[in-house]
Amino acid sequence: MNRNIVPLVRFIVLGISLALIVIGILRREHLEVLQKAVRICLECIGIG
Amino acid sequence: MPGMHRNRVKRDAAGKRLSGQRIAQLLSAALTNGYLIGFQRGRIYAGGTKAVCVPVLNCYSCPGALGACPIGALQTSLGGVRRHFPFYVLGLLMLFGIVLGRVVCGLLCPFGLVQDLLHQLPLPKWRVPSPVDRPARYLKYLVLLILVIGLPAFAVTKTGVTPPYFCKYLCPAGTLGGGIPLMLADPNIRRLAGALFGWKTLVLLIVALTSAVIPRPFCRYLCPLGAFYSLFNRFSFFQMRLDEGKCVKCQRCVHACPMAVNVTEDSNHPECIRCGKCKAVCPTGAISCGFGEHFVPAEENRSAGRDTSGGNSSGHPQ
């Protein structure tokens, strides 16, 4: 049973992850990530 | 019983595989932190590749970073100005998880490399007692749920924007990769350092000192990214495989495992970081790893082995 389910789960999760990425890009979330990542994050480096 | 007798591992047996792991780690560190001029100038890279999260814990405020840290990006999506469900970041994290599982931890993570190098220091090695080790491993799931997801998503602040709590208060990778290099290069940033930087330096020192005596303490107990990827280990495309027919139950793999996983019982345990040390020390080549349909979970392989290779199942751990 496990032998059949594991590959199925793999491809379902793969499909969901790809769908989430596409939805995120359509919502321009990647630009939000870019905006955050190109500025020095003072909290991240311990300045606060 | 899982153990951490890494000092018992024969160097000649482990050497070849260790060097392969190290090459992968170094390549990954170089690829994710390739903006070398940033270290000299005290600036961070601001190109378009930073719209993409790297699979590893690598601070996007590290001067060399070419991509975004997925944990930092996740907190920003949940607690930033827009406050939304993190479709993009979660999708990337799930993609890395389902394809690689914790290969990311074992072969790609620069902070994993730092811990591995520190563990090479000639200091006495400690074995964490199982009654302490087992429950402590759940801490990383709490870190993920509370600091990375819960507080950014639900904590209320005056500004409406919640800080990245994990990055701010716990992440030693940000201090090592971002804080220290930027402070060394930029006197203006150096002047801003206060109590918080003192706290984060203390966290980094504790993790560094602990790494010298315990293998991968941050990965074991605190890393939220490792916690997330561990959820995918059993069914990721990349799998470890134990050939029951070849296994002679010498337990070398168990002793070699830096994460104290009993490889003979569960070769795709959530704690397995796929570093390959078990494979390197196996005298019969019973452990393999890779992508593909033939890499079925160890439990499946075990039952299949019983059916086809009589006489191999006696006494094997369940």
Question: Which descriptors apply to this entry?
Answer:
heterodimer, A: 48 residues, mainly alpha, 0% strand, B: 318 residues, Alpha-Beta Plaits, 2 domains, two-stranded antiparallel ribbon, 17 helices, 53% helix, 3% strand, disordered C terminus
Describe this structure in words.
The complex is a heterodimer of chains A (48) and B (318). Chain A is mostly helical and 48 residues long. Chain A has one domain. Chain A has two helices and no strands. The longest helix of chain A has 25 residues, at 2-26. Chain A starts with a helix and ends in an 11-residue tail after the last helix. In chain A, 38% of the residues are buried. By secondary structure, chain B is mainly alpha-helical. In chain B, 53% of the residues lie in helices and 3% in strands. Chain B contains 17 helices and two strands. Residues 1-15 and 304-318 of chain B have low confidence and may be disordered. The chains are: A mainly alpha (48), B mainly alpha (318). Chains A and B meet through helix 1 and helix 2 of A and helix 3, helix 4, helix 10 and helix 12 of B.
Fold topology:
The complex is a heterodimer of chains A (48) and B (318).
Chain A: H1 2-26, H2 29-37
Chain B: H1 11-32, H2 37-41, H3 70-79, H4 87-100, H5 103-108, H6 110-119, H7 130-136, H8 139-154, H9 165-169, H10 172-185, H11 187-192, H12 195-213, H13 217-221, H14 224-230, E1 238-242, H15 252-256, H16 277-281, E2 287-291, H17 298-308
Antiparallel strand pairs in B: 1-2
Helix pairs in contact in B: 3-4, 3-8, 6-12, 8-14, 10-12
Quickly describe the structure:
Chain A has 48 residues and is mainly α. Chain A is 71% helix and 0% strand. At the A-B interface, α1 and α2 of A face α3, α4, α10 and α12 of B.
Low-confidence stretches of chain B: 1-15, 304-318
Summing up helix and strand content along with how strands pair, one would put the structural category of chain B as mainly alpha
Binned strand content of chain A: under 5%
Number of helices of chain A: 2
Report the oligomer: heterodimer
Q: In total, how many domains does the architecture of chain A comprise?
A: 1
Instruction: Please outline the major beta sheet of chain A.
Output: none
The strand count of chain B comes to 2
Kindly report the spatial arrangement of strands forming the biggest sheet of chain B: 1-2
- Which pair of protein chains has the largest interface, and what are the residue counts? A-B, 38 and 66 residues
Cα(first) to Cα(last) distance of chain A is 51 Å
The parts of chain A where pLDDT drops under 50 for at least 5 residues are: none
User: What fraction of the residues of chain B are assigned to beta strands by DSSP?
Assistant: under 5%
**What is the β-strand count of chain A?**
0
Number of domains of chain B: 2
Question: How does the overall form of chain A come out from the CA principal axes?
Answer: elongated
Q: Largest beta sheet of chain B, briefly?
A: 2 strands, antiparallel
